[in-house]
Design a protein that fits this description.
717 residues; alpha/beta; Rossmann fold; Heat Shock Protein 90; five-stranded parallel sheet
Length: 717
């Protein structure tokens, strides 16, 4: 026998190993007590458990709960005889194979045949020969004990096999868990995409595959970075099919990026000659998408070849898990890059903002110096200096207003006051507002508007802002002497507004970015075209709030650009025209007592001076408590009051004026840097008649004073 072949135990060796305490049951069934005593005496030498029953019914009841090695069954018993009892014993699953020895005083062929048909192993005539009975029962007991021991050892082997399988599964699970832990540590330790992909590809080979490629793609699906790893001999395994393998790999990558789901191809390459026998290397390629935030950012590609392995079951799930972890690490890398880009844009924005705010200040300061340094200034020169200052103030106001709008959009508090407006009329008004910059740069401005009006329901001020930003954007990015075309047309459900220029154009990779905050198309060091990079972001948000859409088109740098706005068309009736702002009926007013309350003394004095120029009598206060005292003494008819006062706020002062001083007929005007609907509603609730947003336009003063004469006002305006 071979030394490595395990020895097989003999039945005697197996029986010898059975504990002595494990004795078998021997069931004796006979209606006569004397015969039961005789059988017990004969079989006691076997040292087994001997159980007796006086009838078939008693034997059947005992067999319901017990097992035995052999049954000695008397054939001739009153009531249920031995043959009937044997038939019932055989009908039960538990005792169907228990050996039965029939004992009878006489036997004929018919009874003997029936007994054997019922599973009898022997037929013994009474009186029995003790040695013969004892030998036959002993053999059956040994067989029973042998079978029991074999079953026990078989169960132990099954339990051992299961334990070994569970241990192997646990070890394999631990191995996979260790792999994932190592992978997580390796790919999460860097925010560099190249490092992440290199670590992932190195870990996957040879643990999961013979070859691994990890690729990241950009927003447009174009390859961005790719890293590979392979087992030794991989190139030799591919041989002349290297290029074909790369082509199949690229196809799999494109497919999984497009579909965002796992893909499998059961070949590594295509035949070099379609007519020749297929000599391509055997293998398969699995492709897993790298999905982050609902977008496929790349692919993990695993190829099997020289090892003849197949990726399935737990390894397939492990590969998918690895792809998810790589995607998460790659997403962290992309988020970090976005943060860096946002920080860079922020720094550029702050630098640009500083420059844009200083630009108007220089001519304003120079004009003020000239006016202050000369005792008598030529009226023509003074007028020119004042116009310069007015233009620079308007420019600074636009910058501040744009910044405030960005803040309102970010906080989600910007509101629209919709009314039916004529797009053509608003375009002409916008062109008038942009006339100065257009004329300065010598641009040719072409309008293409239909004769009929084009109606939309929109916020008139915001629509003007949209149009002016688009036109000024075209003015800024078009070389002097360029051409700017503004057109509008009606479609069945929309009004389409286009602003087209022949300026510097937009690079293809910037077409989507131009709508982002602080993004500048002109990235040259000189930055000859200044701006904050917020105008187009405002345009996009305002157009969307009107239920429309805006798009940018350009063939590339140097080929101009076109911005197209689409707004929902309306057939609403025209709103009745309000009285002209400058008409005498709107502005006619008599001199009134006006109290100006502002903690900014310069602002209070300036507003008081403008009111006095309009023939009003003024008084000033610079905090809430002083305002109450001044109101009690001066008894004003109109009050201009700042909301953010020290001590007692403007809202509290207004409430006390109405309640404590009985000033129910006084026209109260709130001045604030906040102008949301909630701010206006709060002013109305505190007793104000009007809510104006700083800085106050001086041209509105006559209209406000006229409104005071029409008090009580209908609500906050």
């Amino acid at each position: 026998m071979n030394a490595h072949t395990p020895a097989i135990a003999t039945p005697d060796e197996i029986l010898a190993g059975v504990a002595q305490a494990e004795r078998s049951n021997i069931l004796i069934v006979d209606d006569r007590l004397d015969k039961r005593v005789v059988f017990r005496t004969i079989l006691e030498e076997l040292d087994q458990n001997i159980v007796t029953a006086s009838s078939g019914e008693e034997a059947l009841r005992w067999l319901l709960d017990n097992d035995c090695a052999v049954i000695l069954l008397d054939v001739n018993m009153p009531g249920m005889d031995g043959l009937e009892t044997a038939e019932l014993i055989r009908s039960r699953r538990k005792s169907a194979h228990t050996p039965i020895i029939f004992i009878t005083a006489f036997a004929d062929e018919m009874h003997t045949a029936r007994g054997y048909s019922l599973g009898a192993v022997d037929y013994i005539l009474s009186p029995v020969v003790p040695n013969i009975l004892r030998s036959k029962v002993k053999a059956l007991v040994q067989l029973h004990r042998l079978n029991a021991e074999l079953r026990k050892r078989s169960d132990e082997r099954v339990a051992l096999a299961r334990e070994q399988a569970a241990r192997s599964a646990a070890e394999e699970q631990q191995r996979r868990a260790s792999f994932l832990a190592e992978a997580t540590q390796a790919i999460a330790s860097s925010l560099d995409a190249d490092t992440i992909l290199k670590a992932a590809s190195t870990l996957a080979v040879p643990f999961l595959a013979d070859y691994c490629a990890v690729a990241a793609v950009g927003e447009d699906g174009a390859p961005r970075v790719r890293r590979t790893a392979s087992v030794p001999g991989w190139d030799g395994y591919l041989g002349a099919h290297r290029e074909s393998f790369e082509a199949v790999l690229a196809e799999q990558q494109s497919r999984v990026v497009a579909r965002g789901a796992h893909a499998l191809t059961e070949r590594l390459a295509l035949p070099l000659d379609a007519d020749a026998p297929d000599d391509t290397p055997a293998g398969e390629i699995h492709a897993f998408p790298l999905v982050t935030r609902g977008k496929t950012r790349g692919a993990l590609l695993l190829a099997m070849g020289p090892s003849s392995r197949r990726l399935s079951g737990a390894d397939l799930s492990l590969a998918d898990n690895l792809a998810g972890r790589v995607a998460a690490a790659l997403d962290n890398c992309l988020l970090y890059e976005e943060i860096q880009a946002a920080d860079r844009r922020k720094n550029e924005f702050l630098a640009t903002l500083s420059h844009e705010l200083r630009n108007p200040l220089a001519p304003m300061r120079a004009a003020l110096h000239m006016l202050r340094s000369q005792a008598e200034v030529d009226p023509g020169r003074a007028r020119s200096l004042l116009e310069t200052m007015d233009r620079q103030v308007a420019q600074m106001s636009r910058l501040v207003e744009d910044l405030l709008d960005i803040s309102r959009i970010t906080r989600g508090v910007i509101e629209l006051r919709r009314e039916p407006v004529d797009v053509c009329a608003e375009i002409r008004h916008a062109m008038e507002s942009c006339e100065g910059p257009v004329r300065t740069l010598g641009h040719q401005l072409v309008l293409d508007l239909p004769a009929d009006s084009l109606k939309v329901v929109a916020d008139r001020v915001r629509l003007q802002q949209i149009l002016e930003n688009l036109v000024l954007n075209a003015v800024k990015y078009t070389e002097p002497g360029g051409r700017i075309e503004v057109s509008a047309r009606a479609e069945p459900s929309e009004i389409v507004i286009s602003v087209k220029d022949n300026g510097i154009g937009i690079p293809p990779d910037k077409l989507k970015q131009v709508w982002d905050l602080f993004v500048q198309v002109d990235e040259s060091p000189e930055r000859t075209r200044k701006g904050l990079g917020i105008g187009l972001a405002l345009v996009q948000d305002l157009v969307r709030r009107h239920g429309g859409a805006v798009q940018a088109h350009s063939e590339g740098l140097g080929k101009g650009s076109t911005f197209q706005v689409r707004l929902p068309r309306t057939v609403a009736e025209e709103a009745p025209l309000a009285a002209e702002a400058g008409s005498p009926s709107a502005h006619a007013t008599t001199g009134k007592r006006v109290l100006v309350v502002d903690d900014n003394i310069d602002a209070a004095e300036t507003l008081a001076m403008m009111l006095e120029l309009l023939g009003q009598k003024t008084s000033q206060a610079h905090d809430g408590n002083a305002a109450l005292r001044a109101a009690a003494e001066f008894r004003p008819e109109v009050v201009f009051m700042d909301i953010g006062l020290p001590g007692l706020s403007g809202h509290e002062a207004a409430v006390r004026m109405r309640r404590d001083l009985g000033m129910t007929d006084v026209y109260l005007v709130a001045l604030s840097g906040y102008g949301t609907e909630d701010d206006r509603r709060k002013s109305l609730d505190c007793g104000f008649d009007s809510h104006l947003v700083k800085p106050l336009d001086p041209s509105l003063l006559p209209e406000i004073l006229a409104g005071a004469e029409r008090r009580p006002a209908a609500g906050v305006v």
